[in-house]
Amino acid sequence: MAEPIPIIGGTGALGYGLGLRLARAGQAIVIGSRKPERAEEAAAKLREAVPGAEIEGLPNDEAAKRGPIVFLTVPFRAQSETLTNLKEALAEGQLLVDCTVPLAAAISGKATRTVGVWQGSAAQQAQEMAPDGVTVLSALHTVSAPVLAGDEPLDEDVLICGDKKADKSRVAAVIELIDGLRAVNAGPLEQARIVEPLTAMLIGINGRYKTHAGIRITGLPDADHWS
Amino acid sequence: MAEPIPIIGGTGALGYGLGLRLARAGQAIVIGSRKPERAEEAAAKLREAVPGAEIEGLPNDEAAKRGPIVFLTVPFRAQSETLTNLKEALAEGQLLVDCTVPLAAAISGKATRTVGVWQGSAAQQAQEMAPDGVTVLSALHTVSAPVLAGDEPLDEDVLICGDKKADKSRVAAVIELIDGLRAVNAGPLEQARIVEPLTAMLIGINGRYKTHAGIRITGLPDADHWS
Prior knowledge:
Number of strands of chain A: 9
Mean pLDDT of chain A: 97
Helix content of chain A: 25-40%
Shape of chain A: globular
Strand content of chain A: 15-25%
Largest sheet of chain A: 6 strands, parallel
Strand order of the largest sheet of chain A: 3-2-1-4-5-6
Order of helices and strands of chain A: EHEHEHEHEHEHEHEHHE
Structural class of chain A: alpha/beta
Oligomer: homodimer
Number of helices of chain A: 9
Low-confidence stretches of chain A: none
């Protein structure tokens, strides 16, 4: 893609991993953070990891203006505050890909449990808070952050929720820039109620099996699902 | 296994498919139904499909007494009533594998949505209703009933929830009698809150992709997970 991909909360494990994999695929990235110096620090680390990659580090609100498809990878605890702070930064027509998961860890509970979100899911909370004309989608809940941030080959699916197939298709094109990830249309945004808790289940499986598990949907036809 | 596997609601699509695959694996089966004549009818059909297989058809309460590991494959709408009717039939020490899913279809809503169950999941409702000493586990939500009831090879996982690994291991041994199914330890029974809704998500995916999808957990070690 010609335009860079802003990653809000890109200094966290998931955001950094996403940035690393996209940068390796030749995609320009903007790492956003609440603190400009931390954004620049992460960007510098990424530039070192992927020589020649186009990577900027900026405060979240500036980062959010840099491209049409924005990933939100902050912890759930910070999601609402972050979106409040982005009210003036996000603009009509942008896609906001929410990757947050309402783990009970956010309220000092277990990471293998979730908390109920009034709107039904973190993604639907994001949709309620996003400025008019900004479309929220939901993705990347089942991809292990440490794996994404490492060198191992990937071989798993990313479940994308969103109300319009055309929007999901654009997000799928970004995700499928990453080798070994297949984007699957998991339905309208409300299906994030089902997909987000998978993170909690996988965290349990990771502990039990000493691994970094992911999800694969079996039985899908081989054709390009997004054409 | 020497002892037969009772399948309560075995005349339905999932129960019948489970019976068929287990019978093909040489396992003795007891098909239970509310109506004895329907149980016998399904049993006769299975005997025809798998010549030489040991298959009985009995009323649910009689079927439930025939083996130590009982599968419950009734629709969610009938789960509570069925368990009330089994109060005298189920006995201490038995394992009850709940396969029901609280789809909103049960209250004339969409099959791609779920209803909230007070106890947290259908499996937890079953645990509350089961007689003392009967242990409830949860499994088989992501395996397509029509696929199970057909001839196609399987290649997917079954997520098992239950509070004790030793119990899950016994259920896993039954499920892994079926060629192409791998049983994965998805955690304590409460994780059924996360696993049950996957059926709704997969029903959506099936419609969208014109397929019968299933789930595979990626990244698990190759070793026998249940030893």
